[in-house]
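Preliminary data (for renewal application), flavin-adenine dinucleotide complex.
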Amino acid sequence: MRSTRTSSSATGTALAADSLGTVRPVPYWLDQSGAPEPALALRGAATADLAVVGGGFTGLWTALLAKERDPARDVLLLEGRRVGWAASGRNGGFCSASLTHGLANGLDRFGAEMPALDRLGRQNLAEIGDAVARYSIDCGFERTGEMMVATADWQLPGLADAAAAARALGGDPVLLDAAGVRAELDSPTYAGGLWDRDGCAMLDPARLAWGLRQACLDAGVRIHEHSPVTRISRAGGGLRLDTRQGSARVAQAVLGTGAFPPSLLRRLKLWLVPVYDYALMTEPLSAGQLASIGWAHRQGAADISNQFHYYRLTADNRILWGGYDAVYYNGGRITAAQDQRPATFTMLASNFFETFPQLAGLRFSHAWGGVVDTCARFCAFYGTAHDGRLAYAAGYTGLGVAATRFAGDVMLDLLGGEPTERTELDMVRSKPVPFPPEPVRSAVIQLTRSSLARADRNQGRRDLWLRTLDRLGLGFDS
Ligand SMILES: Cc1cc2nc3c(=O)[nH]c(=O)nc-3n(C[C@H](O)[C@H](O)[C@H](O)COP(=O)(O)OP(=O)(O)OC[C@H]3O[C@@H](n4cnc5c(N)ncnc54)[C@H](O)[C@@H]3O)c2cc1C
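Predicted structure:
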């Protein structure tokens, strides 16, 4: 019987050390040519109808959608550093239709609503494809789908259940046995697979962020970079946003600040924890190396362990290989130094060569980490503050490339004040279970991490701690 990996093998570790010898410690996507020149920081006093705080996908999509809804609306986007520098420009580039961090999580939490959420998520993905084409965004958008792979026999019933659940919603996933999945992508570790052929696209996230930035500018959005907002307060009938060198008086605002310290709206601290996720990028594969693994359909892939890897091909046939080690630094610290974690990179590289022994000798070109805005229900939550003048969305928990656009629509609906199908969703109206305050928060998260790893080693059996969290609706993921 196959089993999930428990630790790096000696061969894997040796190969890993060699393969990481010349790695660049920066996100691959952000290390390309084509980054736009930064926009000027906000200086002095500005006004606008709508201010968007944060230049990740949440902020960019919201600003663009606001202009699409009403080209006359005066929209100001304030980004603390550079547009797309954070999670949005350094992720795996899996652009998924799922708004709920996967079907199983959605069914668990919002069962009756899942047909609507599935439909809205697919519509959102289609509209992202349309926007990429309409604005000529050169981000390698490929509608390849995603293949979940089982790396242990005990995981196979889970794949069959997932296939049945997807079919019940009208999906048409392909359930593959070991031979079938290896015909798609060849790893000796595979026991089976489930390929959702149209629920996910692969893209280059930095180029998407840069393209959305340009689309925003072309639509008339005023963008200021290096303009961290330090305070949001009520002013007359609207809001005042202070930055280091300026301020803006606006009618309404949107918060798309991701995992960063939620000082602008303290209640977010209840629901969010910053969790680091790490990734490697290989050098481009030669034709022979690519032939040794197959991958003709270029679908995104991920295994279904609690500690899972996600991986995909780039346009020039590199492999991005990330995940597995979701790290919470006690106290919820976010520092640039934590973007690098050599022990995690070695483990990831070692697992890579266990998965694809045919690629022994391949080297990694880039290694990086980034912060994921994690909440206990694994999918975004939404809300308003300042008497409906400020809307926020966060908590995508590692699946926000597409869900951020849906969140933009939700926040604009909420600011509009009229109920819509989106604002009436239980997913939009409810909140995740809050995390306990520190230092209990750190203890709970570290205990959960080790229990999840133990469950993977134990044929998926969840211990008393995980079962208790399941009952409370509390979870931890990247
Ligand atoms: C390594 C990694 C891999 C991932 N892989 C995937 C994947 O394959 N598929 C997927 O769907 N999701 C993935 N994700 C998650 C996805 O990247 C995020 O869900 C998404 O990018 C969140 O976008 P955002 O705009 O909300 O946040 P961010 O991209 O973090 O942007 C927030 C922005 O707000 C700015 N900001 C913060 N505070 C202020 C302030 N006070 N004033 C002004 N600006 C401020 C920040 O500078 C930042 O630019 C991954 C994440 C990571 C880290």
